[in-house]
UniProtKB/TrEMBL annotation:
The chain crosses the membrane at residues 6-27, 312-337, 349-375, 391-414. This is Glycosyltransferase. Keywords: Glycosyltransferase, Membrane, Transferase, Transmembrane, Transmembrane helix. SUPFAM superfamilies: Nucleotide-diphospho-sugar transferases (SSF53448). Belongs to the glycosyltransferase 2 family. PANTHER family: POLY-BETA-1,6-N-ACETYL-D-GLUCOSAMINE SYNTHASE. It comes from Limosilactobacillus reuteri. One of its GO terms (molecular function) is glycosyltransferase activity. The keyword Transferase applies. InterPro entries: Nucleotide-diphossugar_trans (IPR029044). The keyword Transmembrane applies.
Amino acid sequence: MLIIIFTLIWGIALFIFLVYSLISLLFRMISYPRDFYHFAGNQQPAKIDRNLQYYVIVPCFNEAAVIQRTIKCLLRFKQFAIVVVDDASSDDSVGQIKQITNSRVHLLRRHLPNAHTGKGDVLNFALDYICQITIRQQVPFEKVIIGVVDADAQLAENALQRLNAYFSSPRTNITQMRVKMYPHFKNWLQILQDIEFFSVNHMAQIMRMYTKTVGLSGNGQFFRLAPIIDKIGAHPWGNALLDDYELTIKMMLKKLHVDYMTDTYVYQEALTSPKRFVRQRSRWVQGDLNCLKYLPKIIKSRVLSRTQKLGIYYFLLQPWINFLADVAIIILTTITLTHWHNLYGHLTLMTFSLVMAGLVVFSLFWGIIFGIFYYRDLAYYHEPPLKKHQLALLPLGISYMYVILFFSIIMAYWRWSFRQNSWIKTEHGKNVS
């Protein structure tokens, strides 16, 4: 009976994954090339709106190692004003910021005990400041574009061009850029994170454009100020550990959907340490669990379509699906190993070898598919290619990288169950192993 129950759980989880992956693949291969110019920033507007004012918010907490690089890279875009919010850093972050003497850099500081209350509060603090400036300067909120960029980030060279092309149309509201890791990879974990963001998540976001369920990624989000203030309020960000998706849900409930930028992207640092990788992902999983409080509103909403609701349900159910699937795999594997002879003793060596080979090929299938797309994506955007031995091992890494994420799920459920909602900081600019 136990085997039947957990086989059923594993089968359902596998079915959901296969259907979702297959649909994403079809949209990427068939629909996206045909509809390229319908995606955010790929349009060719009749006239660029030169009155747009960009304010890019950069949250900063102990980012002395990277904050100068990030600000200097943002200053290359002449239309950007950069609002850096230091959240009571204990390192030399403020000193590093003050070394940059440029009128387009605005340094805001939060002090204890009012600091360290979450990224959402930091972003809302910056938005209050920006609203005060724009009101004082009598700039219409329709012309004010707010961006959010992480302290370790860098925008691609064509970012402003794509943003202007998108926001020059007054009908546009919010967009999320594609995300990529910096290409100076030091280990396999960094490569796998790049594949995940640059190709796998990219494929999912393309599908979400068609279902109007594109999710904000925190890093590289830009929105027009007027509709956000009008429909969500002066403090749009909440306190969920996944503040970006919480804002996505709030927007969707107010009939605002996010558009996706496919042809420009934001770079961010990939983690080198498996320990810190697990900690980071546990925060994301716990943030997903935090967003369950919106479930009653989502279910009752008359604004959301059935497709949109289904997309949100899938996202919110992911931690539960992954947890149950992982538990099922562990139990079924344990049963198989303890009853090895009874299960496979009657098979010939040849038959057993074919069964094992089939299982290996099946497990590597999506790793091969995603690996091919990643290889092509790197070539298309003239990003540094991988070495031959890295390419050969790519399917194995992609297929099995999620094994270590089981620990992040356990950690997230533990913290969520005991209401431990403190922010687990991701360290930048350090090669920690």
